[in-house]
Write a structure and sequence with these properties.
By secondary structure, this protein is of the alpha/beta class. It is built from 6 helices and 5 strands, in the order αβαβαααβββα. It has a 5-stranded mixed beta sheet, sandwiched between helices. It starts with a helix and ends with a helix.
Length: 152
Amino acid sequence: MKSASDVIKKLQGRTLATAESCTGGAIGATLTAVPGASKVFKGGIISYCNEIKEKLLSVPADVLSFYGAVSAPVAEAMVKGAREALNTDIAVSVTGLAGPDGDEYGNPVGTVFIGYSDCGKTLSRKYLFAGDREAVRMQSVEAALKLILENA
């Protein structure tokens, strides 16, 4: 995947962490397929359930209950938590619904929030991807890599 190698090249001299929910580690797997990734990618936290988002990424329980796991505030808390937990310069987070169902907050399948954080800013973007579960997951990986490239 071209954008993964572009991320590794662009981040030389800096470090990267991931916080993944619906992608289940696919961003980390994509990055580590690139030779030289170990110079940039320190690791990731797969936080598929809210308990892990709270315990390992320091996402406040009240934020999870008020906004739901698939939301901008949670994506931003996850990405900040990953940067802190893994002590990196940059982090990216993904939380979303790959299917088969939407959530109780009204988000349909394909709704994904991707967070980005570095020493100067934290942001998130909302996406609505189409396709089956695997298509949503792979589009999420690609969008996360592009978000890093745009902001790093």
